[in-house]
Amino acid sequence: MRKVPQFLFRCSLAALMPVAANAAGTYYTGNYQSPQSRYTQKNYTNYNQNSTYARNVGYTMPGAARSGNTVVGQSRTQVAQPRAPQQTAASSSSKKGFFVDAGLSHEVAQWQFEMKESGSILHYDNIGWNVFDVKGGYAFNVGNTNLQLDAGFKYGMQSGDSTMVDDDITNGGYFITQWVKDDADKTIIGEQIGHSLSVGSSSDGNMLGFNIGLGLTDFFKWGNVKFTPSIGYRYLKYKLETKNNYGLSVDTAACFRIDGSDEIQCDPAIIVNYGSGDQTWQQILWRDKLTDKLQVVDAADIKFIDTGGTYYYQQPGTSHSYEVEWTGPYIAMDMVYDINKNNAVNGRVELGFPGYSATGDQPYRFDWQHPKSVEDKADMFSAMHVGLGANWTTAITDMVSFSLGLTYDYYNVSGADAKTYLNGGYYIDIYNDLLSQWAQKYPTNTEQHMLGQIEGVAGDPLAINIKDLEASCPGWVCSSNGEIESFYKSIGVRVGINAKF
User: Fold this and answer.
1) Domain region containing 383
2) Whole-prediction pTM
3) What confidence score (pLDDT) does residue 251 get?
4) Do 350 and 387 form a contact (C-beta atoms < 8 A)?
């Protein structure tokens, strides 16, 4: 074994010590000692006595064979001169551990649904919500994959009064009955259609929502923006009621279009009782399409005029109550841009595929069941949800930040199925009363006479309609497929506090 003279070794060591100290800050081996450590005589002696050692001294023996970072001499091994400092890729995740975000927001929303067949439109406008929300999660690694599991909860209370409009005029109305002229040909006069418009106030509603998701934390970068894609499940429910409802109802005899224009005019349903004694009958005034005039009745015979369902009404209590749910899966993309170490901007884009359900109770409708009068429903993936959010955050401490942001949500469904739950007892009572009246005139085969099943007898139109209604609505539940189009949209301002630990 060839030895280096002790004097030469000491000189070499003294000359190379500053190089080793500077290099160690960026690149080092397991034998690195900090620059603050003093090389005592004892330390030097120990190293000098070792026949084989490895130090970052940048010394290469002449004729030595190079293998990687290690130089192999004739009898001892030394570490080669360190490489230039290397840039290592930063972790793809900016979050590790738990995080929580809580905030208060004020949202302004609108909900509307439209019935295609009847043309009825009901909408709640300028709904104010005061909302508390909290979101928490945990960021962790599985192998080389950075994941985060998060869950959120929100609860809102309606702020102030909003306006509800129940519109059965704009696009149509509701079918009441068909009128037939009492002549040899049984001429159809027209269909009696009901039109109404009511306006009420809504307050004291509430909202509940939650979501759970799984994302790939900071999965990729675009410039200085980090992106976290995720999938999850979201649930939103809100309840709205209408009180102090004022309206006008107009039952029409027939509607017609003015020639040469798009204008529609409807005749009100004015029912006239005329005759005397046993010779009394009832007829509705109708427009003669040839003369464009209402049928004239001898005033001397008129005993009573009924305006049908044409009236003004006031409902001081609860007239409408709806509970609406949107629930289903979503995909989302979260983005964060770090302005500096204390400030950042983040955003979220979410696309959901929920189902839709709206259950309504209209307690003033004595011909409908309670507490469930109507139900509109669409299966999961039948509706759509677009959610947007943006926040600016600024650090308060190393762990806590303040945030200010905006939220936007839009839900929409088209072609939802509708069900109307009728009060069967109400219709059965009317039917039985009519049957009793007809029994006085036709003691035998009374029901057949009343339903017009006996030749030469027209029957009772109301009884016939009730019987047809029962047949078309099994169990007194009327179903209509693809009837409902509905949307809910909201925009809000949010302030919050978030922390990581």
Assistant:
1) 98-269+307-422+473-500
2) 0.74
3) 82
4) yes
